[in-house]
From TrEMBL:
Species the sequence originates in: Flavobacterium cucumis
Protein name, per record: Putative redox protein
Feature: compositional bias, Polar residues: 13-22
Lineage: Bacteria, Pseudomonadati, Bacteroidota, Flavobacteriia, Flavobacteriales
Region named Disordered: 13-39
Cross-referenced InterPro entries: KH_dom-like_a/b, OsmC/Ohr_fam, OsmC/Ohrsf
Tree of life domain: Bacteria
Length: 140
């Protein structure tokens, strides 16, 4: 069984530094409205980034295996928070944007669906607490 370990260290005020198992470091901070200086990623937004990164890695790998011609690819994720504390995401929308002159829409849809339904562990975690909606956009 694989275990991931991170260390998150307080840097003063509302700022933290967190390591990744690879050794990379990210900054986490609250916004000014919550006593921080906004010098890092917000924890909840970081969860949305993790979701986009997880599915993005899957899709990028599948695009390569399928030898798909894509000029650019981006994922936009929005999360709707509950009104009550603790505020959690209850609705999440994941939009996949593919750019290129020769997009194979059928194969790209298959790549996205494989990530969403089979490979992306973060997507599966999100489904435990939120309604997740997916949409694909092709920009030729």
């Amino acid at each position: 069984m694989e275990t991931h370990n991170i260390t998150t260290t307080w840097k003063g005020n509302m700022q933290f530094e967190s390591t990744n198992p690879s050794g990379d470091v990210i900054s986490i901070d609250a916004g000014p409205e919550n006593g921080g200086e906004g010098k890092g990623l917000r924890p909840k937004a970081l969860m949305l980034s993790a979701l986009a990164g997880c599915t993005g890695l899957d899709v990028a790998s599948l695009m390569e295996k399928m030898k798909l011609e894509v000029t650019d690819f981006k994922i936009e994720v929005s999360g709707e928070l509950t009104e009550e504390h603790p505020k959690t995401y209850h609705k999440v929308k994941v939009d996949y944007h593919f750019y290129g002159n020769n997009l194979d829409e059928k194969k790209l849809e298959k790549a996205v669906n494989l990530s969403v339904e089979k490979y992306c562990g973060v997507m599966e975690m999100f489904r435990q607490f939120a309604k997740v909606e997916i949409e694909i956009f092709y920009h030729n």
